[in-house]
Amino acid sequence: MVAAASVVVAVGAVTGMMSAVGDGGGSDRARPGVTASPRLQPLPAVPSPSPSATKSPFPEAGWSEEEKENEKAKASPEPSASRTEQKRRTTSVPTRLYRHPDSRVLDWVRANPDDPRRAVIESRIADQPAAVWFADPSPDSLTSRVRAVAAGGAAQGRTPVLVPYAIPDRDCGGHSQGGAPDLGAYDAWIDRFAAGLGTGEVIVILEPDSIAQSGCLSAGQRADRFASLARAGRVLKGANPRARVYYDAGHSGWNAPEKQAGWLRQAGAASAASSDGIFSNVSNFHGTADEIAYDRAVLEALGGPPGLGAVIDTSRNGAGAPADGEWCDPAGRKVGRAPTLSTGEAGIDGYLWVKLPGESDGCKGAPGTFTPSYAYDLAR
Length: 380
Prior knowledge:
Structural class: alpha/beta
Shape: globular
Strand content: 5-15%
């Protein structure tokens, strides 16, 4: 069996996303971008920790955070050690995530009030908070666009999730265009991104695939990229000390934890000055239990200051990864656990929807476009 990389790039490849790409007019509206990822040579599979998945006392998605916490309280009047630790770790962070008002799924819901699939898609996907991606390397309106999303979250007392995605050679193979022309331009881009973060709580998913998929770079190129990523983390946290910055750990079917941790350490992920921990499973399908075990192994190998945690993309992992390693709109997948910053799992800071369910990888619809039939299959 082979496992493909969870690559996400802006034009010509595999994953769609809610995206705040520039429109050349300085608009502050974060709009979906047509995205996709390249058909890469599959990577050798690394055996996953594959713990037995425990049955959740509530459905994978569709429950509000308040409902889930009430159910947990009924089932366990006394808080467990892990839950107490998690609560202590996130005391200063609003427990509710921000849903940005612009996305392709919301556009579809508003435009199709009589579609019989609408109610399911709206309640299971459109009503959930999802990440906002910034994939345009042009910096002209970047600060104002980031500020609009950060301010929207702050106004509601909720935490927005932002994804800067402009590292040069971001698909590590040149299969598609996109990204800053060089690291100097990228550093300047990050400065402008950071300037829009404001002073409220924000979560930053820093450059998906930038570390896990760096094996195609030369040692020198990799060192330069990692130095730029470490700088990015310092700049983001320096601009807004309440920003929580997470670094790319790939997923449980990709690199071994020790290898991934070594690269993460070089990229600044073990430094409190630049990092709050790691993220995994972006745009992929691996089950939550596998990701929890993998992320804990990576964090243990990473070392670093106490308090480093992990966030997991659960947007499409409700049925786990396909046995055949298929990555392009595979059949039988389901939305995963609803986004939350209250996981009840030690070291796991949140379950996030980084990839927006229903945006095609390029097989059930044009790459990056919202495909209602695919969304309905995922949601029902």
